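Lab meeting notes turned into a lecture example. A postdoc, R.K., suggested we walk through two folding results consecutively so the class can see how the record format repeats. The first protein's sequence and structure tokens come next.
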Amino acid sequence: MKKQISEFLKIGFGVLLASIGLKVFLLPNGFLDGGVTGIAILLSELFDLNISIILVAVSIPFLFMSWFTLSRRITIKSIIAILALAVMMHFENFTSITDDKLLVAIFGGLFLGAGIGLTIKNGAVLDGSEVLGIFANKNFGFSIGKVVLGFNLILFSITAVTLSLEAAMYSTLTFLVTAKIIDLTIEGFEDYVGLMVVSDKTELIEKELIEVIKTGTTLYSGSKGFGKRGARKESDIIHTVINRIDIRRTYNMIDRIDANAFIIEFDVNTIKGGIRKEIFQKENMKVLLSEMK
């Protein structure tokens, strides 16, 4: 119950941020965002209609897709979030604080992206273009990213023709800022990378990773292979995840121990569980290092 209350409170805060981005920055200056929100703004600009009503009406087909593509729980939470956004936008009395187009595009995208990202992170959808992507992927095999990109290319092309090329260009900038902030909100600001290390000095490297870099490790048993040092026998392979800020220090450490180590680096989006920082307290470190001997 506490978790559900927390989720709805965070969704409410996300809706507030999104509405500020729209009412304070984008709408007063005629800027669009991508996706369903962009369609609603465009229709509102062209036909002088109430943006709140248009937003709900345009979202209905995508919520219908969500009912069959995602889960009913997500769809119900999304309906509540979209209705809350429509109501908040209707009754908000925020006034525009700048008419500088670059600031409008950046800060409008920032607030809208933070709001959408926070809402998605807590199990709801404020914009249906992602739902369209998932629906097309599930039923027709299209890439989700390509569907969203194609959707927005069509939207901004219509904007260029019906409003102005300048509005379309600034709206594209807003969309790019929004997309990046959504990613940062969902994935966090910490950027992790994974490393797989094959070396003849696995024990020394593992010890340094734990003791100096302060990260956990997993060892895989490697079979035979062939590399620049010829045929290899069985050996342990180190698999670890580190913060990107530590990547250069980690490479320097590995080079110092084994300049010929084979290293594979890959991106990591989500981490759950595993070793936490508190395990590296002095008492726990002694136990951990003693188990490695």
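The second example is placed directly after the first for contrast:
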Amino acid sequence: MYQNILRPLLFLFDPETVHHATFRLIKLIHRLGFAKLIRSLYQVNDPSLKRNVFGIDFPNPVGLAAGFDKDAKLYHEMANFGFGFIEIGTVTPKAQAGNSKKRLFRLKTDQAIINRMGFNNLGVATAVEALKLNKGVIIGGNIGKNKMTPNQDAASDYLACFDALFPYVDYFVVNVSSPNTPDLRALQEKVPLTALLNELQVANGQQTKPKPILLKIAPDLSQPQLRDIIEIVADTKIDGVIATNTTIAREGLNSANRTEAGGLSGRPLCARATEVIRFLSVESKGAFPIIGVGGIHSAQDALDKIEAGATLVQLYTGFVYQGPALVRDINKALIRGVKTAS
């Protein structure tokens, strides 16, 4: 139904307009009492799907990536579609409008999206108020810096988000890999990134029960840079890596919007994201958990990332193109794999 009816209809309109309209529609469907029906259609419950990763018990390994529910408006409803965890954000200390519109583009032929949103969000305080209503959904908090904050002061922004969100999220993600905030990716270099993560770890260590901190990296890093990431994880003792964010590469695209500036996500990213996961897993000898994200449009894409070394996976663009059945299909494929192996 989604691919044959809803998606063609939704794709007739501006993607950012559709995104907000979809939020309102999902809210309405739940208010009308269809939550139980949605759960029956898409949730898959099986003991074999459970994962304990960095001390958190996940009901299944398929999560919703950051960027979809930036302000924690829809996490209960999205969990009903079968996601095992929801990552909100990227949030910044202060609300910001992001980059000027138009800033979101579909590449239908390539089953991809280019965005240059620029960390548009309502600020961390708004996310906190929404998360106070959480009823058991596992939440990741993806944190960043405001556009006007210079890199030398970035740590203060990340710490502000960390402190505000700490009581309300299960794990943190440090986002220094978005291509849509000027100079942000410079924070991925070894010296500034190590300093930033160490400051967050100091704040984390002051808590009675520290929470996992993960680093989200770009797919455009070279092998020497990826080796630096492995060293940084070991040196700072953070809990894992999310591989990967969107890419600035444009090879092999056919859609008219392929030259738009911003981060590319979707099917063209799939192979590169899996390659990065495999490299990190092999080179580190499996030293830390990896959440695999990037171009997952089928159950096999998710299985490939898990085979490459991912412990959990996340969806975004694949969810837009394939619909909520993708979450169900991945979880069912994982169950079949367990039964086949046994």
